[in-house]
Amino acid sequence: MLEAQKLAACRGFSRLFTEVSLRVHAGEALVVTGANGTGKTTLLRMLAGLSAPESGEIRWQGKRVAPLDAKLRAAMAFAGHLPALKDDLTAEENLASLVALEGGAPSREALRDALDSVALARQRALPARVLSQGQRRRIGLARLSLIARPLWLLDEPLAALDAAGAELLARLLTGHLAQGGLAVAATHAPLGLGGSRVAALVLG
Amino acid sequence: MNATASTFAPEPADMVWPAIRWAVARDLKVALRSRAELGVQLLFYVIVASLFPLATTPERNTLASIGPGVLWVAALLASLLSLPRLFAGDHADGTLEQIALSPYPLVALVSGKIVAHWLTTGLPVALIAPLLGLQYALGGEALAVLVATLLIGTPILSLLGAIGAALTLGLRASGSLLALLILPLYVPVLIFGAGAVEATRTGLGASAHLSLLGAGLLVACVGAPFACAAAVRIALD
């Protein structure tokens, strides 16, 4: 269970949000919406532990966590705006490297299957430089499917994805939730999670 | 009791080596794919070191006395030239976020990146130095000591420089700021590095200088990765 109590964030002298509290149980998704500049990304980075909240606290499995807490890092997958891909490495090398960074050691077959499942089988050996934004996003989806983490933090997961990609994401997410996973997603468009337990948080 | 404890929290040592291996392997792979950048840095070293004999004098004694200093200053500048690359790329493409959020200790991952940086910049400089030293009429023993000082000294440059590179992440004009920040810290390395070669040349023996350089390397190895990891955390906040 992921909880946050009375979080507040400041950017410079302006206050982005105050008194944001949330609770996400196993098998549940929290969809964060709000206009541009209301602090969706900031909230997600706070939950991930990348930035410290101005005030308030975050709890994971009932225990208070500081920024970059080791237990939370081992339980979480964060997918931010930036795809974390190296232009000079191929799609497969990028995926292998990102999964290894999370402590996984996938076999070649597992990597290929994962790329296959996000429709990147033919782009496997291409350097990331030549991939489109949507294809880069799909590598991120393949990564999520390969690293088994209970908590997913997704920032604008639909950005640059086409209809098939959005469907893929919805399928991944519902599968994740059905297995008792948690997810927090900041988004502008509906994720299409019919049948799953979804809560909403509106910022601003 | 120990057994149960270790099932919940992996031993730190289990996490450190895979983390260092990951960072070294990945950075080396990326560096080898963009070999032009490495070549530019090495070429810069060769050119700077070759300009001085052309600009000053072909006289053997003068060259031999300025040689160690020039070769070391050139190594310093070459290291400085490559430092912005150490974290800037990973910061720009989001890899640094994932590195900080990885279950591996950040200090170990950062150490691996520093090792890879040294392997791709400091090591080639140290290996090519004796060739450039010939231009300065340095004798065999002096050349051997030059390589030894560079092999001990350039890792210190990478370690100290990494702190500066992490501190200046995301700033405007970070390259020049990095130079201002780091060059003063490089001064002791320069003094003992060039001093060792000079001492050999004049027959005093280099062991004192080399010991001090070695001590500096040990201190930097212990301290710099932690400072660097802290700076990376600040840069991401």
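Residues 1-9 of chain B have pLDDT under 50 and may be disordered.
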